[in-house]
């Protein structure tokens, strides 16, 4: 059975997500919606999408759909999810899920009550080198991990392609922190405690562009996540994430240029795990754009009833607790217990 879907939003990411869906069998995009008709038409035309709309309510009233893919600014997520759930449609939604934790929790509840799936298009953990890193970590050659560092620190001019990021009151923790803290959960398990600090270094932006989050996670692992768009370093290679893990029996590292190095008493094993290349991917974003394909394949399996996606709305709520918790921790200079939050 072919699933019919509509894409809501025709901005920067929609082109790559649409191309990602086109890599998969068993689904068809039948309409695109954007408040700017010309943008919707420009997105639909190269993909042969037959109809465009400027009003999502009209689209949902007119079209026969199985799900919608919400690729719009964060403040529109909740109303669009409620609209789709009201039409009995499953929803794939962009990160960050909502503008705050209460809103994200409400979106999960709305979909549960309507009996529709809410899945989050959280692609970072699907990057090829990170999947391999997780396999090696779980294989256990370095023994039980006790400390880890996730490093996403660069001076990439991220505002050039996504100018709206400049005006966000909450910037790096919602934009990249949502990915990095989700990756921390993927690698090390749930957070028991969290402490964060933030800085705004770029003078012409609204929110923070530097954040450090320290957590106790999983089986007593100290995890520090360093994020910055304001740091020029020798090893920076946007959009790579570096991960360093100390275990009782060795050290596992995901370093620059997709190299994984595993050091034990036997010595160091090094192998490179580059991402696959897709002709439609922007070369500067190749690593992330290629991760869209396995991420959306995982979401599609769930939509087809073949299993539960890794990043359901309910699962992603735990990631939301971390980045919204990080703002709270930084503002109050206190250590939080993320799972204990009453609003989720
Ligand atoms: O993946 C993202 O959320 C993007 C970028 C990597 C540029 O931050 O906004």
CATH architecture of the largest domain: 2-Layer Sandwich
Strand order of the largest sheet: 8-9-10-7-11-12-13-14
User: What would CATH call the homologous superfamily of the largest domain?
Assistant: Dihydrodipicolinate Reductase, domain 2
The gross shape turns out to be globular
Explain what the structure shows.
This protein is an alpha/beta fold. The protein folds into two domains: 3-123 and 295-310, NAD(P)-binding Rossmann-like Domain (Rossmann fold, 3-Layer(aba) Sandwich); 125-274 and 318-332, Dihydrodipicolinate Reductase, domain 2 (2-Layer Sandwich), CATH 3.30.360. It has helices at residues 12-22, 37-47, 56-62, 77-86, 101-114, 128-139, 172-175, 177-188, 286-303, 313-332, and strands at 3-8, 27-33, 51-53, 67-70, 90-93, 118-120, 145-153, 191-199, 210-217, 221-228, 242-247, 250-255, 259-264, 267-272. It has an eight-stranded mixed beta sheet with strand order 8-9-10-7-11-12-13-14. Helix 1 (12-22) links the parallel strand 1 (3-8) and strand 2. Helix 1 (12-22) crosses helix 9 and helix 4 runs parallel beside helix 5 (101-114). The structure holds (2S)-2,3-dihydroxy-3-methylbutanoic acid (89V). (2S)-2,3-dihydroxy-3-methylbutanoic acid (89V) is lined by residues 158, 162, 175-176, 239, 288.
């Amino acid at each position: 059975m072919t699933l019919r879907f509509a894409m809501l939003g025709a901005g920067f990411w929609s082109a790559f997500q649409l191309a990602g869906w086109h890599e998969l069998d068993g689904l068809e995009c039948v309409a695109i919606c954007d408040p700017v008709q010309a943008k919707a038409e420009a997105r639909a035309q190269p993909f042969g999408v037959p109809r465009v709309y400027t009003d999502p309510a009209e689209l949902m009233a007119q079209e026969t759909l199985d799900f919608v893919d919400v690729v719009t600014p964060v403040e529109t997520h909740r109303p669009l999810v409620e609209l789709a759930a009201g039409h009995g449609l499953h929803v794939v939604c962009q990160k960050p899920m909502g503008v705050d934790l209460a809103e994200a929790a409400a979106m999960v509840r709305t979909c549960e009550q309507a009996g529709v799936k809410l899945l989050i298009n959280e692609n970072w953990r699907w990057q090829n080198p990170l999947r391999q890193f997780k396999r090696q970590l779980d294989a256990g050659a370095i023994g039980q991990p006790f400390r880890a560092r996730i490093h996403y620190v660069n001076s990439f001019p991220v505002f050039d392609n996504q100018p709206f990021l400049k005006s966000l009151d909450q910037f790096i923790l919602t934009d990249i922190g949502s990915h990095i803290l989700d990756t921390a959960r993927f690698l090390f398990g749930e957070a028991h405690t969290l402490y964060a600090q933030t800085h705004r270094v770029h003078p012409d932006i609204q929110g923070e562009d530097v954040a450090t989050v320290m957590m106790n996670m999983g089986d007593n692992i100290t995890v520090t996540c360093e994020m910055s768009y304001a740091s020029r370093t020798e090893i920076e290679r946007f959009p790579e994430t570096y991960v360093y893990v100390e275990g009782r029996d060795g050290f596992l590292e995901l370093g620059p240029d997709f190299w994984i190095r595993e050091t034990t008493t036997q010595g160091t094993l090094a192998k490179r795990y580059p991402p696959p290349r897709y002709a439609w991917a922007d070369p500067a974003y190749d690593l992330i754009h290629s991760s869209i394909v396995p991420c959306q394949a995982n979401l599609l399996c769930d939509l087809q009833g073949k299993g539960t996606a890794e990043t359901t709305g309910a699962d992603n709520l735990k990631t939301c607790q971390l980045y919204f918790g990080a703002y709270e921790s930084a503002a109050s200079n206190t250590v939080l217990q993320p799972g204990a939050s009453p609003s989720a």
